[in-house]
Amino acid sequence: MAIMSYIEAVTLAMREEMQRDSQVFVLGEDVGVRGGVFRATDGLYSEFGEDRVLDTPLTESAIAGVAIGAAAYGKRPIAEMQFADFIMPAINQIISEAAKIRYRSNNKWSCPMVVRAPYGGGIHGALYHSQSVEKIFTGVPGLKIVTPSTPYDVKGLLKSAIRDDDPVLFFEHKRCYRLIKGEVPADDYTIPIGKADVKREGTDVTVITYGMMVHFALQAAEQLEKDGISVHVLDLRTLVPLDKEAVLEAVAKTGKVLVVHEDNLTGGFGGEVSAIIAEEAFFELDAPVRRLAGPDVPAMPYSPTLEKEFILNPDKIAKAIRELAEF
Amino acid sequence: MATEIKMPQLGESVTEGTIAKWLKKPGDPVAKYEAICEVSTDKVNAEVPATFEGTMVEIVAGEGETVAVGEIICKMAEEGAEVTAAPTTPVAEEAKPEATNASAPAPAKVDVSAKRGSGSGRFSPAVLRLSQENDIDLTLLTGTGAGGRITRKDILTAIEQGIGKVGSAPTPQVISVDEPVVAQVPTVDVDTALSTTPPASKPAMGVVTEEGDIEIPLTSVRKTIASRMVQSKHEAPHAWTMMEVDVTGLVELRNKMKHDFKVREGVSLTFMPFFIKAVSDALKEFPVINSMWGGDKIIQKKRINISIAVATDDALYVPVIPDVDELSILGLAKKVNTLAQKTRAGKLDLSDLQGGTFTVNNTGSFGSVMSQPIINQPQAAILSFEAIVKRPVVMNNMFAVRDMMNICMSLDHRVLDGLVAGRFLARVKELLEEYTVDSTF
């Protein structure tokens, strides 16, 4: 099995799907000749040509709009937002059109589109290159939202997303791109959307998270193991539809839950997870459900000191886990 | 001292770099901003500049080595600093504290005498559920959580080790319910009643709530009533007796007087003042009835303070009219009226509730013809006046239609016996039957 980086798994999944299905095509800013600013579409232009790897103007509303139209026509577009921060001009297309086509047309039309967007910070990207935007979409029925953390999950989930008949927002944590490497099988496997994954078994505290925070949580768990604290880590992988059963099962493992995300605390997806736990796993709880998230400030700052203060890290997560363990 | 130079961040999403070439070797002088090495990443190739003037001390990452952002690539000495040889073993590693055993949570032990911390009385949903499902007596466990809280893990450990089972305590722990409350002074003290731990406030076992049932949380008044009633029934052996009273004369008297009385005095003339007056007079003659149980003695009260039961929609109060023996029918009527209004308005003071020595209960007001009242502890007896109803009775060997009323008395058999109670009751009956349409008051 090949060891590859997170972003290589993104490229591989797209390449394999484009080879498999001629309806699949890619569009976005600099995705063609340049191969994407992060190199996610590296080599696709030369392999599939300009008809299937489209360089677009700097107009996210058009990228999403064209993708929706093509999807309605039977194509399977993969629209790249260069940064998740830039998805804002496309929100009307995504929320008002893509999310509602199936419902609005009484099931006659669908929108088999994937929107890929690199999100998250910790890479000195400052205000417009660091945001987490998932909470804008998690409350919009009609969208599926995938946030993988490992190369293996990336390949399997991106393939599922491309094959899905409904719009999928595929959020890739940009810090994972080159930092996270892992084994990725060469075969054509998929991972079902809506299934969480236990990344580590433990008995003292359950951490429920996704994306880059999965790795921080695992590092924190490693640290704490030395002190005899056993941490259970559940990677949600998909936010919508949420794998409720996996969440409740993970709660029952320890009775103490820490929900972690880089997105802001207020209105963040952790609130939804916490509410579900409170409603459906009350008698499993041994401590109040705790959330650890980005602070409620407008954006990730540029100053390294402030960025460090803003973003979570293994130490901050370890501290919160330790407090819960001692409760 | 050498300063560590770390792999810089060379672009967004770049998390590591490969040292392509070292431009300086140990011992070389380095000017500020001078390139010290070349680094390649899959996005960019770049030179790493020195951030201060100094001397290269040691190269940590060799050419061709891939290093994560933030990891040390080399060490440099600042200009003017003494150059020392790089230490061969990292010192920091050795200083690590041995924390493996120290902070591992200790298993729960059977330790009844353990000092309980602030967290010991609060249980999480998981702990309560597990303790109920596995018959674990939480008072037998020592918590390892914050403030001595029993954690879910403590319970799981206890289940595994088979300890803490209900009934397995070496010496059964007595839950400190108060000793039988024996009042020295006859006070109906709401606060005292609230602070006790009566059996009544424990959740009743076996009560199943079904859909549509309404659970009404206990108000403090309800709790007090519950605790006092249970306490009374539990502690005072209740005996009960009843007599029939012919109040035809009293009814006629009241019917004749009530209109003028209301106009003159501003309050309605009810039967209650007459009942209280009769009780008061009878108590004077049988002072032992005006007593209370004092544990190792019986305390016979000099003052005659009558508690009257006043019901509101959701509670029952027993405000007190003190020194009733000094009051006329008019005085009693006014007092009863005032207390009833204060009760219904929720404006009773603590002083209105204290000091009763005997209770009068007007159960007839809602039509009852017989009742078994619960004694208002620590008083020795309570008397209910039932509804006045017209009944055929035999008088002078003839049937007559008379206004009849039952009076029912519960007595604390520790203090009183049936004979004296019967005599007292008979005297009350007699006093009431003495009224005629021409009586004055």
From TrEMBL, chain A:
Pfam families xref list: Transket_pyr, Transketolase_C
Parts forming coiled coils: none
Keyword DNA damage listed: no
UniProt domain Transketolase-like pyrimidine-binding: residue ranges: 4-179
E.C. no: 1.2.4.4
Keywords, in A-Z order: Oxidoreductase, Thiamine pyrophosphate
The protein's name in its UniProt record: 2-oxoisovalerate dehydrogenase E1 component beta subunit
SMART domains reported in the protein's UniProt record: Transket_pyr
Native source organism of the sequence: Croceifilum oryzae
GO molecular function: branched-chain 2-oxo acid dehydrogenase activity
InterPro entries tied to this protein: THDP-binding, Transketo_C/PFOR_II, Transketolase-like_Pyr-bd, Transketolase_C
Cofactor: thiamine diphosphate
From TrEMBL, chain B:
Record GO terms (molecular function): acetyltransferase activity; lipoic acid binding
Family: Belongs to the 2-oxoacid dehydrogenase family.
Organism field: Croceifilum oryzae
Name of this chain's protein: Dihydrolipoamide acetyltransferase component of pyruvate dehydrogenase complex
Keywords: Acyltransferase, Lipoyl, Transferase
PANTHER family, A to Z: DIHYDROLIPOAMIDE ACETYLTRANSFERASE COMPONENT OF PYRUVATE DEHYDROGENASE COMPLEX (PTHR43178), LIPOAMIDE ACYLTRANSFERASE COMPONENT OF BRANCHED-CHAIN ALPHA-KETO ACID DEHYDROGENASE COMPLEX, MITOCHONDRIAL (PTHR43178:SF5)
Transmembrane segments: none
Keyword Translocase: no
Region (Disordered): 85-117
Pfam (any one): E3_binding
Lipoyl-binding domain span: 2-77
GO cellular component, one term: cytoplasm
Cofactor: (R)-lipoate
Highest taxon above the source species: Bacteria
Keyword Acyltransferase set for record: yes
Record EC number: 2.3.1.-
